[in-house]
Write a structure and sequence with these properties.
By secondary structure, this protein is of the alpha+beta class. Helices cover 43% and strands 17% of the residues. The chain has 2 domains: 1-123 and 333-350, 3-Layer(aba) Sandwich (NADH Oxidase); 125-332, NADH Oxidase. The strands form 3 sheets. Strands 1-2-4-3 form a 4-stranded antiparallel β-sheet, with helices on one face. A 4-stranded antiparallel β-sheet has the order 5-8-10-9, with helices on both faces. Strand 6, helix 7 (196-202) and strand 7 (206-207) form a beta-alpha-beta unit. It binds flavin mononucleotide. The site of flavin mononucleotide has 18 residues, from helix 2 and helix 12.
Amino acid sequence: MSTSLPGPWSYLLDEARAYPSPHNSQPIAVRVRDAGRAELFYDLERGLPAENFGKPFGNVCAGVYLESLATVAAGHGWSVSADLRYEDLDFGATARHQPLGTVSLEPSEITPQAQAGLAAFRRRRTSRRPYRNLPVDPAVLSEVGAIAAAAGHEFGRTDRRELVDRIVRINQETLFDDLRNDAVHAEIMAWIRTSDRAAEATRDGLSARTLLLPGPLLGFALRHRGMWDLPLAGPLLRRIYLNTMRGVRELGWLTGPFGSAAEHVTAGRVFLRAWLAFTRAGVHLHPFGTVITNPRSHVAFTEAAGVTEDAGRTAWMLFRYGHSAAPPEALRRALPEMLLDRDGVTSWGR
Ligand SMILES: Cc1cc2nc3c(=O)[nH]c(=O)nc-3n(C[C@H](O)[C@H](O)[C@H](O)COP(=O)(O)O)c2cc1C
């Protein structure tokens, strides 16, 4: 399947496909207008409306994509400017693809920073592996603090053993709690791939391999969610899951303005910038986004960490970071799958 797009779009969009998205649902679609312009869309069928922060996190993901595209483009000698609509996602809309706005390309110099950014983008992966229990270079922590501050956000962190353990436990309980919610459970089931074959078939979603859990056990446990509350099976499943969290010694979070669609997009851009700073320093990251989106866990986390939220500031991201072995790769759909043609919603090259 060949995709021939005007200008540099073919290779820029092809690389930007590696952007991270919640549940690896890959919701961004693109319609190329000409050699220098393209329109971005959010594919509402790939959104996560059941979650409490489903709408804000949709625009966070748009910001993550925009920053990914800008990072890829900069490494190839292009700067990206965006003219966005900044609207909340409308999951009740009849049209499947909600327009996000337009991006334009201008030639730019390839700086060493741009090259380093692209190299980090190519290496970046979520690591749900056990971590090595080694400290993280304080220089990268300062860098992440500066990235957040430059956009009016704050990077908080802890390496207090007791607090780390407590929040890791809150993250684990979040999964159990989410599974009790029928709508969220159905949404998780739609994105879980319990075998390599299932992951290859769709090239999206959360594969058992990337979750580091045995596929058949994962499938069985998710289909029989009552099991989690049984006296023997419940603790066993908790132990298997918590085992993947061995060696975690530090947790980080991002707080800041998170009230409007524009702020959600900015948050996404900040998150990817921070993630790439960690990656450049050889540090892996694992977002605990569901702790943020699950209302009960959100309160439990902010109270435990002593994070104060008010009208202008929300704790909108939480993650573990540290050193680990290389994590498994999460697959991506082919480029034509995310391209819209000029007239409507069908993909190029299909
Ligand atoms: C906004 C956001 C929230 C996320 N939340 C979670 C989460 O709660 N738990 C988790 O295991 N991974 C989470 N992830 C990681 C994605 O599942 C991951 O990026 C995706 O599966 C693709 O894998 P990759 O990052 O290795 O390329 C999140 C990613 C993003 C961008």
